Amino acid sequence: MTSISGDLDGLSALANCESSSRICDVIFVHGLGGGSHSTWAGTDAAHGFWPSWIGEDFGNVGVWTLGYRADVSAWTSESMPLADRGTAILETLANEGIGERSVIFITHSMGGILAKQILRHATSFGVKRWESIADRTRGIAFIATPHAGADLAGFAELARLVLRTNEQVAELRAHHPRLRELHAWFLKFQSDQQIVCRTFCETRELRPGMLGLSLPKGILVVDQTSAEPHVPGEVAIPLDEDHVSICKPRDRNAPLYKSLKRFVADVLAARASDALPAQTVDLTGEWIAEVARKGLKPYQITLDLEMMGARLLGTVHYPSGDAGIHDGTIAGDRVSFRTVHTPQFADRAAEIRFEGTIAGDSLDLILQDDEGHGRLSARRRT
């Protein structure tokens, strides 16, 4: 367990991140005016830093915090907030091996928007190491994230005070089109990838003096309408908290932590599909191979293969005659089959067994019969 006592930029390892046997990485992403530590740290230090509880309760999960300069990022009419920063963060994640296993994002406020932007960049730029981050994302929790609600006045006011801007954030006051377009993309992505989601919203106004800001009065930063993700089968869960306290559960019995613990467990259960065997490779077609056998001159054979589910059918054309394939099976990258035929000028049938592996566009096989064994590497005729 790593101790994190202050806000840090970049990706910081918190728990179980050095374990090569971990099956998932959980990344905490803060929002406006927050930090990698301060956003999640409660007022009661005796209870500890709660993201570390995830690492304690799930020993097979790596826990990370992501820090970025949320106070200097601007909204513009040309781009989403943090769009360029999202690209830099993708490389930061890839450098730490994020995407090599399942990924879960736990986000607060604009951190949820940033997570969606990161995933969109990951799918758009054609960079394989970034694509794997999107491909392996299995869950996202949104805590008080303003997705695309009809009334974003509270969030716009917070953005104006934190970012010290006026004109740009005015667009947030009524259904910002960039937020709407990004969330429409996310809903399609979520459906295609079957990503597990949880959403939480505040019900109390943020009090004057919080975050060191001079609020003229209390404001409900992200109301339930703005927080509602419209993900099928999910609704925004209201909590009796304000925009700051909502992501600071007091103990493990707090409603937010109990829900997030269940959420991580649900994602890990859904992740079981990752362990299913890869889809059977389709070997249908004509394959050409040269057989090398000790003491014999190399000779060519042709394999006409057909697939029926995981069963391999077809014919092998030997120099001595044709033979149908029997007991042909494929399991992962392993293939096996046998043929039986009576060679020309022979007085009895010959059985030949094949076993080997599928290696990209080739079949690397060993054949065995009464005369011994041989090797061949078959390639599909194009």
List the helices and strands and how they pair.
Blueprint: E1 10-15, E2 24-29, H1 51-57, E3 61-67, H2 83-95, E4 102-108, H3 110-124, H4 128-136, E5 137-143, H5 153-163, H6 167-170, H7 177-193, E6 196-202, H8 224-227, E7 237-239, H9 255-270, E8 285-293, E9 299-308, E10 311-318, E11 321-331, E12 334-341, E13 350-359, E14 362-369, E15 372-380
Structure summary:
This protein has 382 residues and is an alpha/beta fold. 25% of the residues lie in helices and 30% in strands. The strands form two sheets. The protein has an eight-stranded antiparallel barrel with strand order 8-9-10-11-12-13-14-15. Strands 1-3-2-4-5-6-7 form a seven-stranded mixed sheet, sandwiched between helices.
Main sheet makeup: 8 strands, antiparallel, barrel
Strand fraction equals: 25-35%
What structural class results from the helix and strand content? alpha/beta
Element-level helix/strand string: EEHEHEHHEHHHEHEHEEEEEEEE
Radius of gyration: 29 Å
Domain count, please report it.
Answer: 2
Characterize the structure shown.
This protein is α/β, with parallel strands linked by helices and 382 residues long. It folds into 2 domains: 10-275, Alpha/Beta hydrolase fold, catalytic domain (Rossmann fold, 3-Layer(aba) Sandwich); 285-380, Lipocalin, CATH 2.40.128. Helices cover 25% and strands 30% of the residues. It has 9 helices and 15 strands. It has helices at residues 51-57, 83-95, 110-124, 128-136, 153-163, 167-170, 177-193, 224-227, 255-270; strands spanning 10-15, 24-29, 61-67, 102-108, 137-143, 196-202, 237-239, 285-293, 299-308, 311-318, 321-331, 334-341, 350-359, 362-369, 372-380. The strands form 2 sheets. An 8-stranded antiparallel barrel has the order 8-9-10-11-12-13-14-15. Strands 1-3-2-4-5-6-7 form a 7-stranded mixed beta sheet, sandwiched between helices. Helix 3 (110-124) crosses helix 7 (177-193).
